[in-house]
Amino acid sequence: MIFFYLSKLLYFDLVVRGFLKIVVHFMPGSNARGMYNDSTIYIAAEKLLNEDTMLEVIGVLAHELCHYAMYLVYRNGKKPYAVNDKEAEKKFVEILNECELKKDSEDIIKRVLSYDTDKREFELIVRVPQMLVHYLYDTNKLKYLRITYASLFKYFEDDVLPHVRAAILVIEKITDDPKLIKW
Questions:
Q1: Strands (E), the chain
Q2: How many angstroms separate the Cα of 148 from the Cα of each of 11, 106, 132?
Q3: Measured CA distances, 57 to 51, 102, 154, 166 (Å)
Q4: Could you give the CA distance from residue 6 to residue 26 in angstroms, rounded to a whole number?
Q5: How many Cα atoms within 13 Å fall on the side-chain side of residue 48?
Q6: Cα(95)–Cα(91) distance, rounded to whole angstroms?
Q7: If you compute the radius of gyration of the chain from its CA atoms, what whole number of angstroms results?
Q8: What pLDDT is stored for residue 171 in this prediction?
Q9: Is the distance from CB of 3 to CB of 9 less than 8 angstroms?
Q10: 40-95 pLDDT, tens digit each
């Protein structure tokens, strides 16, 4: 289901395969912000359709979609590892600690530090796709980020993405075969 409502407020509502609802609002006076709650992603931005801020908004959407992926894949409070995987937990906590110590931290990463300690793990991992989109056309910045936060990018690419890809295959199989869906 997709529909648009245009006036002073842009309202975009998209339901993806019955699992996820995405709501985007054009809101004067707001920077691109997002929130994932249950099975709905909310995005708000003042200049949603402005060419200068489009990548910022799409980056926030990538960030929120990553929260949803972490929820689906790991079922661990959106953290980027399985509940009983102590080795992965230790590895990611070390990466978080390393990122917290960076003196010239990237703004998108800095925002993680504004969260309570118990939320920083699931807020840090979603910054990777957000930065990849946000700096899509700034190859120097992306190169700098990949070097400065090498362990974070490596964890995302080597530890998270393989699990996400495997989960996608399972979800596609379930949603393509009505006999496997139990309501």
A1: 2-6, 10-16, 20-26, 33-37, 40-45
A2: 38, 9, 14
A3: 10, 26, 24, 28
A4: 10
A5: 18
A6: 6
A7: 17
A8: 72
A9: no
A10: 666 666 655 556 677 887 888 888 888 888 988 998 988 999 999 999 999 999 99
pTM (predicted TM-score): 0.77
Q: What is the pLDDT of residue 10?
A: 38
More confident residue, 64 or 163: 163
Question: How is residue 31 written in tokens?
Answer: 């920077």
HSE-CB of 39 using CA atoms within 13 angstroms: 9
Place of tokens 């989109």: 133
Give φ, ψ of 86 to 5 degrees: -65, -30
User: What span, in angstroms and rounded, lies between the C-alpha atoms of 44 and 24?
Assistant: 6
State the Cα torsion 147-149-155-157 to the nearest 10°.
Answer: -50
